[in-house]
Specification:
Order of helices and strands: EHHEHEEEEEHHHHHHH
Strand content: 5-15%
Largest sheet: 5 strands, mixed
Shape: globular
Number of domains: 1
Distance between the termini: 29 Å
Number of strands: 7
Helix content: 40-55%
Number of helices: 10
Radius of gyration: 19 Å
Structural class: alpha/beta
Oligomer: single chain
Length: 300
Protein backbone atom coordinates (compact mmCIF):
# COMPACT_ATOMS: atom_id res chain seq x y z
CA UNK A 1 0.00 0.00 0.00
CA UNK A 2 1.38 3.38 -1.02
CA UNK A 3 0.84 6.10 1.57
CA UNK A 4 2.90 8.93 0.07
CA UNK A 5 -0.22 10.73 -1.16
CA UNK A 6 -2.08 10.42 2.13
CA UNK A 7 -2.40 13.53 4.28
CA UNK A 8 -1.11 13.03 7.84
CA UNK A 9 -3.68 13.96 10.45
CA UNK A 10 -2.91 16.25 13.37
CA UNK A 11 -5.60 14.55 15.48
CA UNK A 12 -2.95 12.39 17.12
CA UNK A 13 -2.13 12.38 20.82
CA UNK A 14 1.23 10.65 21.19
CA UNK A 15 1.72 9.35 24.74
CA UNK A 16 4.50 6.93 23.86
CA UNK A 17 7.51 7.23 26.12
CA UNK A 18 5.48 9.17 28.68
CA UNK A 19 4.86 6.46 31.21
CA UNK A 20 3.55 2.99 30.47
CA UNK A 21 3.49 0.22 33.01
CA UNK A 22 6.27 1.83 35.01
CA UNK A 23 4.01 4.67 36.09
CA UNK A 24 3.31 8.19 34.93
CA UNK A 25 5.15 11.34 35.78
CA UNK A 26 3.59 14.59 36.82
CA UNK A 27 0.57 14.06 39.01
CA UNK A 28 -0.60 10.51 38.91
CA UNK A 29 0.40 6.95 38.30
CA UNK A 30 -0.45 3.37 39.10
CA UNK A 31 -1.69 2.58 42.56
CA UNK A 32 0.00 -0.64 43.63
CA UNK A 33 -1.64 -1.37 46.94
CA UNK A 34 -3.93 0.72 49.08
CA UNK A 35 -6.92 -0.80 47.31
CA UNK A 36 -5.50 -0.56 43.78
CA UNK A 37 -4.58 -3.42 41.52
CA UNK A 38 -0.97 -4.34 40.89
CA UNK A 39 0.54 -4.07 37.44
CA UNK A 40 0.80 -7.84 37.08
CA UNK A 41 -2.87 -8.29 38.01
CA UNK A 42 -4.00 -5.76 35.42
CA UNK A 43 -1.90 -7.34 32.66
CA UNK A 44 -3.10 -10.81 33.65
CA UNK A 45 -6.75 -9.75 33.56
CA UNK A 46 -6.19 -8.09 30.19
CA UNK A 47 -4.78 -11.30 28.73
CA UNK A 48 -7.58 -13.36 30.28
CA UNK A 49 -10.21 -11.10 28.72
CA UNK A 50 -8.51 -11.31 25.33
CA UNK A 51 -8.47 -15.12 25.44
CA UNK A 52 -12.06 -15.50 26.68
CA UNK A 53 -13.51 -12.87 24.38
CA UNK A 54 -14.52 -10.62 27.30
CA UNK A 55 -13.86 -6.89 27.33
CA UNK A 56 -10.77 -6.65 29.59
CA UNK A 57 -12.00 -3.32 30.97
CA UNK A 58 -14.94 -5.16 32.55
CA UNK A 59 -12.64 -7.62 34.34
CA UNK A 60 -10.23 -4.94 35.50
CA UNK A 61 -12.90 -2.55 36.74
CA UNK A 62 -14.71 -5.41 38.50
CA UNK A 63 -11.51 -6.46 40.26
CA UNK A 64 -10.87 -2.86 41.29
CA UNK A 65 -14.31 -2.68 42.85
CA UNK A 66 -13.73 -5.92 44.78
CA UNK A 67 -10.40 -4.69 46.12
CA UNK A 68 -11.85 -1.32 47.02
CA UNK A 69 -10.00 0.53 44.31
CA UNK A 70 -13.01 2.43 43.00
CA UNK A 71 -11.05 5.56 42.18
CA UNK A 72 -9.24 6.09 38.88
CA UNK A 73 -6.02 4.11 38.96
CA UNK A 74 -3.97 6.49 36.90
CA UNK A 75 -4.16 9.95 35.49
CA UNK A 76 -4.06 10.33 31.74
CA UNK A 77 -0.77 11.87 30.65
CA UNK A 78 -0.79 14.71 28.18
CA UNK A 79 0.66 13.45 24.93
CA UNK A 80 2.26 15.44 22.17
CA UNK A 81 -0.33 16.61 19.65
CA UNK A 82 0.13 16.38 15.91
CA UNK A 83 1.56 13.89 13.43
CA UNK A 84 4.57 12.03 14.90
CA UNK A 85 7.96 12.11 13.17
CA UNK A 86 8.81 8.40 13.50
CA UNK A 87 7.89 6.09 10.63
CA UNK A 88 5.25 4.04 12.47
CA UNK A 89 3.58 7.04 14.07
CA UNK A 90 3.61 8.96 10.80
CA UNK A 91 2.11 6.00 8.96
CA UNK A 92 -0.75 5.86 11.47
CA UNK A 93 -1.22 9.61 11.09
CA UNK A 94 -1.47 9.25 7.31
CA UNK A 95 -4.02 6.45 7.58
CA UNK A 96 -6.00 8.51 10.09
CA UNK A 97 -5.86 11.54 7.79
CA UNK A 98 -7.24 9.46 4.94
CA UNK A 99 -10.10 8.20 7.12
CA UNK A 100 -10.95 11.83 7.82
CA UNK A 101 -10.83 12.78 4.14
CA UNK A 102 -12.87 9.76 3.02
CA UNK A 103 -15.53 9.80 5.72
CA UNK A 104 -16.01 13.58 5.54
CA UNK A 105 -17.22 12.96 1.97
CA UNK A 106 -18.82 9.51 2.18
CA UNK A 107 -20.84 9.89 5.38
CA UNK A 108 -22.76 13.01 4.31
CA UNK A 109 -23.28 11.61 0.81
CA UNK A 110 -24.44 8.14 1.84
CA UNK A 111 -25.93 8.62 5.31
CA UNK A 112 -26.75 12.34 5.47
CA UNK A 113 -24.53 12.72 8.55
CA UNK A 114 -21.62 15.08 9.06
CA UNK A 115 -18.33 13.51 10.01
CA UNK A 116 -16.48 14.75 13.06
CA UNK A 117 -12.99 13.33 13.42
CA UNK A 118 -11.93 11.44 16.56
CA UNK A 119 -8.54 11.67 18.23
CA UNK A 120 -6.19 8.71 18.00
CA UNK A 121 -4.04 8.09 21.08
CA UNK A 122 -0.72 6.31 20.61
CA UNK A 123 0.64 4.75 23.79
CA UNK A 124 2.97 2.04 24.99
CA UNK A 125 2.18 -0.36 27.81
CA UNK A 126 -0.62 1.24 29.80
CA UNK A 127 -2.54 4.49 29.71
CA UNK A 128 -5.88 5.90 30.80
CA UNK A 129 -8.92 6.20 28.55
CA UNK A 130 -12.37 7.64 29.04
CA UNK A 131 -13.56 4.02 29.29
CA UNK A 132 -11.05 3.04 31.98
CA UNK A 133 -7.59 1.53 32.03
CA UNK A 134 -6.12 0.81 28.60
CA UNK A 135 -3.22 -1.59 28.20
CA UNK A 136 -1.52 -3.17 25.24
CA UNK A 137 -2.85 -6.72 25.84
CA UNK A 138 -6.34 -5.46 24.98
CA UNK A 139 -5.38 -4.56 21.43
CA UNK A 140 -6.63 -1.39 19.73
CA UNK A 141 -10.06 -0.12 20.75
CA UNK A 142 -12.46 2.79 20.37
CA UNK A 143 -13.90 4.51 23.45
CA UNK A 144 -17.26 6.16 22.68
CA UNK A 145 -17.20 8.12 25.95
CA UNK A 146 -14.25 10.29 24.92
CA UNK A 147 -14.48 9.54 21.18
CA UNK A 148 -10.87 8.44 20.98
CA UNK A 149 -9.13 5.45 19.41
CA UNK A 150 -6.38 3.88 21.54
CA UNK A 151 -3.50 2.09 19.83
CA UNK A 152 -0.29 0.57 21.12
CA UNK A 153 1.63 0.12 17.87
CA UNK A 154 3.32 -3.00 19.26
CA UNK A 155 0.06 -4.65 18.17
CA UNK A 156 1.40 -4.46 14.61
CA UNK A 157 4.36 -6.59 15.68
CA UNK A 158 1.99 -9.03 17.39
CA UNK A 159 0.08 -9.33 14.13
CA UNK A 160 3.26 -10.54 12.46
CA UNK A 161 4.56 -12.79 15.25
CA UNK A 162 1.44 -14.37 16.67
CA UNK A 163 -1.42 -13.84 14.25
CA UNK A 164 0.17 -14.52 10.91
CA UNK A 165 -0.88 -11.12 9.58
CA UNK A 166 1.01 -8.01 8.67
CA UNK A 167 1.67 -5.50 5.92
CA UNK A 168 0.79 -1.84 5.53
CA UNK A 169 -2.76 -2.34 4.30
CA UNK A 170 -3.38 -4.88 7.06
CA UNK A 171 -2.21 -2.32 9.62
CA UNK A 172 -4.38 0.31 7.96
CA UNK A 173 -7.34 -2.07 8.18
CA UNK A 174 -6.86 -2.31 11.95
CA UNK A 175 -6.98 1.48 12.30
CA UNK A 176 -9.91 1.75 9.87
CA UNK A 177 -11.85 -0.88 11.86
CA UNK A 178 -11.63 1.26 15.01
CA UNK A 179 -12.63 4.34 13.02
CA UNK A 180 -15.55 2.22 11.81
CA UNK A 181 -16.74 2.07 15.41
CA UNK A 182 -16.57 5.86 15.52
CA UNK A 183 -18.72 6.01 12.39
CA UNK A 184 -21.19 3.66 14.11
CA UNK A 185 -21.24 6.03 17.05
CA UNK A 186 -21.98 9.01 14.80
CA UNK A 187 -24.80 7.01 13.20
CA UNK A 188 -26.29 6.28 16.63
CA UNK A 189 -25.69 2.55 16.32
CA UNK A 190 -23.35 2.00 19.28
CA UNK A 191 -25.81 3.26 21.94
CA UNK A 192 -28.50 0.96 20.50
CA UNK A 193 -26.14 -2.02 20.58
CA UNK A 194 -25.19 -1.32 24.18
CA UNK A 195 -28.86 -1.02 25.17
CA UNK A 196 -29.66 -4.30 23.41
CA UNK A 197 -26.81 -6.04 25.19
CA UNK A 198 -28.04 -4.82 28.56
CA UNK A 199 -31.53 -6.11 27.76
CA UNK A 200 -30.29 -9.46 26.46
CA UNK A 201 -31.61 -12.55 28.22
CA UNK A 202 -28.28 -14.36 28.15
CA UNK A 203 -24.56 -13.84 27.67
CA UNK A 204 -24.76 -15.68 24.34
CA UNK A 205 -27.43 -13.27 23.08
CA UNK A 206 -25.39 -10.26 24.22
CA UNK A 207 -22.37 -11.70 22.43
CA UNK A 208 -24.35 -11.92 19.20
CA UNK A 209 -24.94 -8.17 19.29
CA UNK A 210 -21.21 -7.70 19.81
CA UNK A 211 -20.42 -9.94 16.82
CA UNK A 212 -22.74 -8.02 14.51
CA UNK A 213 -21.31 -4.75 15.76
CA UNK A 214 -17.73 -5.84 15.09
CA UNK A 215 -18.54 -7.28 11.67
CA UNK A 216 -20.15 -3.99 10.70
CA UNK A 217 -16.93 -2.19 11.70
CA UNK A 218 -15.02 -4.65 9.48
CA UNK A 219 -17.32 -3.78 6.59
CA UNK A 220 -16.95 -0.05 7.21
CA UNK A 221 -13.18 -0.51 7.16
CA UNK A 222 -13.66 -2.09 3.75
CA UNK A 223 -15.80 0.87 2.62
CA UNK A 224 -12.96 3.17 3.60
CA UNK A 225 -10.47 1.04 1.66
CA UNK A 226 -12.70 1.13 -1.42
CA UNK A 227 -12.86 4.93 -1.47
CA UNK A 228 -9.21 5.41 -0.58
CA UNK A 229 -8.28 3.27 -3.56
CA UNK A 230 -10.66 5.23 -5.77
CA UNK A 231 -8.90 8.42 -4.67
CA UNK A 232 -5.28 7.22 -4.85
CA UNK A 233 -5.18 3.85 -6.66
CA UNK A 234 -2.78 2.73 -3.96
CA UNK A 235 -3.71 -0.85 -3.08
CA UNK A 236 -3.20 -4.01 -5.11
CA UNK A 237 -4.07 -7.69 -4.87
CA UNK A 238 -1.22 -8.35 -2.46
CA UNK A 239 -2.53 -5.64 -0.12
CA UNK A 240 -5.98 -7.21 -0.20
CA UNK A 241 -4.49 -10.64 0.56
CA UNK A 242 -2.73 -9.11 3.57
CA UNK A 243 -5.96 -7.64 4.89
CA UNK A 244 -7.82 -10.90 4.31
CA UNK A 245 -5.06 -12.78 6.12
CA UNK A 246 -5.34 -10.45 9.09
CA UNK A 247 -9.14 -10.58 9.21
CA UNK A 248 -8.93 -14.37 9.13
CA UNK A 249 -6.20 -14.53 11.78
CA UNK A 250 -8.21 -12.48 14.29
CA UNK A 251 -11.43 -14.46 13.89
CA UNK A 252 -12.75 -15.72 17.21
CA UNK A 253 -12.61 -19.34 16.09
CA UNK A 254 -8.94 -19.07 15.12
CA UNK A 255 -8.00 -17.29 18.34
CA UNK A 256 -9.94 -19.71 20.54
CA UNK A 257 -8.46 -22.75 18.83
CA UNK A 258 -4.96 -21.39 19.33
CA UNK A 259 -5.48 -20.38 22.95
CA UNK A 260 -7.69 -23.15 24.34
CA UNK A 261 -7.73 -25.88 21.71
CA UNK A 262 -11.48 -25.71 21.10
CA UNK A 263 -14.07 -23.36 19.64
CA UNK A 264 -17.10 -22.06 21.58
CA UNK A 265 -19.31 -20.12 19.14
CA UNK A 266 -21.63 -18.77 21.86
CA UNK A 267 -18.65 -16.93 23.33
CA UNK A 268 -17.72 -15.21 20.05
CA UNK A 269 -17.58 -11.41 20.36
CA UNK A 270 -16.01 -10.42 17.02
CA UNK A 271 -17.06 -13.13 14.58
CA UNK A 272 -15.43 -16.12 12.94
CA UNK A 273 -12.57 -15.86 10.48
CA UNK A 274 -14.95 -16.53 7.59
CA UNK A 275 -17.39 -13.88 8.78
CA UNK A 276 -14.72 -11.23 9.26
CA UNK A 277 -13.26 -11.81 5.81
CA UNK A 278 -16.70 -11.81 4.18
CA UNK A 279 -17.81 -8.52 5.68
CA UNK A 280 -14.50 -6.82 5.01
CA UNK A 281 -14.86 -7.79 1.38
CA UNK A 282 -18.48 -6.59 1.21
CA UNK A 283 -17.28 -3.09 2.04
CA UNK A 284 -14.11 -3.30 -0.01
CA UNK A 285 -15.91 -4.40 -3.19
CA UNK A 286 -18.83 -1.97 -3.11
CA UNK A 287 -17.95 1.02 -0.95
CA UNK A 288 -21.54 1.28 0.30
CA UNK A 289 -22.36 2.06 3.93
CA UNK A 290 -25.87 0.63 3.56
CA UNK A 291 -24.42 -2.74 2.53
CA UNK A 292 -22.76 -2.98 5.96
CA UNK A 293 -25.99 -3.37 7.95
CA UNK A 294 -25.13 -6.63 9.70
CA UNK A 295 -28.12 -6.22 12.03
CA UNK A 296 -30.65 -6.84 9.26
CA UNK A 297 -29.23 -10.16 8.13
CA UNK A 298 -30.53 -13.48 9.42
CA UNK A 299 -27.02 -14.84 9.90
CA UNK A 300 -24.08 -12.44 10.19
Amino acid sequence: MQDDDLRPSDNIEDRRGRGGIGGFGGGGGFRVGGGGLGIGAIIGLGLLGWVLGINPLVLIEGAQMVTGGNQPQMSAPQGQRGAPDDSTGNFVARVLGETEDVWSQVLPAQANRQYTAPTLVLFDGVTQSGCGTAQSAMGPFYCPLDRKVYLDTSFFQDMQRRMGGGGDFAYAYVVAHEIGHHVQNLLGILPKVQAAQRAASSKAEANQYSVRNELMADCLAGVWGYWMNRRHANIDENDIRQAIGTASAIGDDRLQRQSQGRVVPDSFTHGSAQQRVRWLMVGLKGGSVSSCDTFRTTEP
